[in-house]
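Let us work through a complete example step by step.
Step 1: write down the sequence.
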Amino acid sequence: MNEPRFRSAVPEDAARIAALHADSWRRHYRGAYADSYLDGDVVTDRLSVWEARLAKRSGSITILAEDDAGLVGFVHAVLDDDVRWGSLVDNLHVSHARQRAGIGRRLLSRVAEETVERAVSDGMYLWVLEQNTAAQRFYRSMGGTRVETADVPPPGGVPSRLVGSPRGFRIAWPDAGVMRSG
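Step 2: predict the structure and record it as tokens.
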């Protein structure tokens, strides 16, 4: 496999991002999100989110990782989302075929670098599902600390898209600079 290239997303990338986002949710969010939602038209749902995000772009960062085969990962952060915790890493997804190849680490490092340069606060945080233990291990390896547990909000605000009352963990980095790429 070839080395990924990294670049900022543009509005024309929305469909590819939505497809990878939906695939990742289908693989990792079972048991927290309803199968009927995940097996339904989740790609169209994610596409509407990504079209809106990439049309706006101010106050956020979206970085893509691509190789000759196409999109292999992305990260999206909302700058200065929380007065206490800083910028929110709202999405970090790597294609199933390219996981554990350092792409997630590089994406998180790049968004941390952008956050330190562009945000008022150097803090950064994200939410991870309680059931996603592999992601939790990854974030710990990147220096993140679990600081809070909360109910997971339903995607799109639709309660029927959840299974029961899933929980999520807030993972925080008081200084995102510790993750910047060298």
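Step 3: interpret the result. Residues 18 and 46 are 5 Å apart (CA to CA).
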